[in-house]
Amino acid sequence: MASVGLRLLIAGGVLALLFHRIPAGEVWAVLRSARPELVSLGIGITVLNELLIAHRLRLLTAAHHLEASTRGILSINLATRFYALGLPGGNALGMALRIHRIVRGSGRYADVVVCVLLDRLATTGAMTLFGLVFALLDHHPVPIMIPAVLSGATLVLATGYIVVLWRPGWSFIAPIWRRLERRLPSRITALRQSTRRVEHPLALTLAAWSLSMVVHVLGVTTFWIVARAIGVEVSALALAWIRSTALLAATLPVTIAGLGVREGILVALLVGLGVPDSPALAFSLLLFATTTLAMGIVGAVVELVQSRSGRFA
């Protein structure tokens, strides 16, 4: 995993390359033209999405008979947005922080690990499936690698979800668990016991993945609103697969909060659809500010308030 310095170097290098090819003055001019009411609406939808994301994890914890409120999980998730802006680890750090905060002295680490892992697999798997469907429906030319990558990622993530939520009656999964048990016997046994606490796995899966789809619909809506805020004309259909591709790449822990990687991919894909390079880069930067940075700032406020009150969610 890359250190903070290396991640900053990679992010800075990608952004420097972009600004070397695209005049910063033109990008700034586009950003200055942004309609504040639409930017504010985009931030509002992002906050709503954070609430739905917290509720999804709440459904998973409730299925494991864990005490965790949607409000408490929301506070935890916002805190992870803040720490992910500058600390190494990216998504791994976020998952570790969620696990530590949700456990809260109960000692049920295996249950919480399963919940957080299922939550991550559900949201990312639904995202790649969502993007794949719209890439296939889009009448614009879509680079052949996009459907290939999204379909492969969806298959891997869905398989991972099924393996984690394995039930004794699902014989086709048993060999995988037996191999894992030989390598990590005590830990895998604890995880298997945790998954068996879920009384209705199929209903839970349907609820988690359906809620994830709603989250991604709202995410695409935010993309579309931010695009309109600076006059970028791209269909919601195209933005759906562009968003999934960019966010999937941004999960790689090679830069700070995916900065640079996400912008480079967004610019390349938007330019390929005929968007001028300056508005394309401005769009990617405004998205970062509206979603990642804004939620990180909110998370910092939450952490400050909770630290002064001497408690954490």
Structure notes:
The chain is an all-alpha fold and 313 residues long. It has one domain. Helices cover 77% and strands 0% of the residues. Helix 2 crosses helix 13 and helix 3 packs antiparallel against helix 10. The mean pLDDT is 85.
What's this, in brief?
By secondary structure, this protein is mainly alpha-helical. Helix content is 77%, strand content 0%. It is found in: Cell membrane.
Offer a few descriptive terms.
mainly alpha; 13 helices; 313 residues; single chain; globular; transmembrane helix; transmembrane; membrane
Largest sheet: none
Q: Which range does the strand content fall in?
A: under 5%
Summed over residues and divided by their number, the pLDDT gives a mean of 85
**H/E series:** HHHHHHHHHHHHH
Termini separation comes to 28 Å
Number-wise, the strands total 0
Helix content: over 70%
Computed Rg: 20 Å
Low-confidence parts lasting 5 or more residues at pLDDT below 50? none
- Secondary-structure class: mainly alpha
Overall number of structural domains:
1
SSE inventory with pairings:
Layout lengths: L3 H18 L2 H9 L3 H28 L6 H15 L6 H13 L5 H29 L7 H20 L9 H10 L1 H11 L5 H29 L6 H15 L10 H12 L4 H33 L4
Helix pairs in contact: 2-13, 3-4, 3-6, 3-10, 3-13, 4-5, 4-13, 5-6, 6-7, 6-9, 6-10, 6-11, 8-9, 10-11, 10-13, 11-12, 12-13
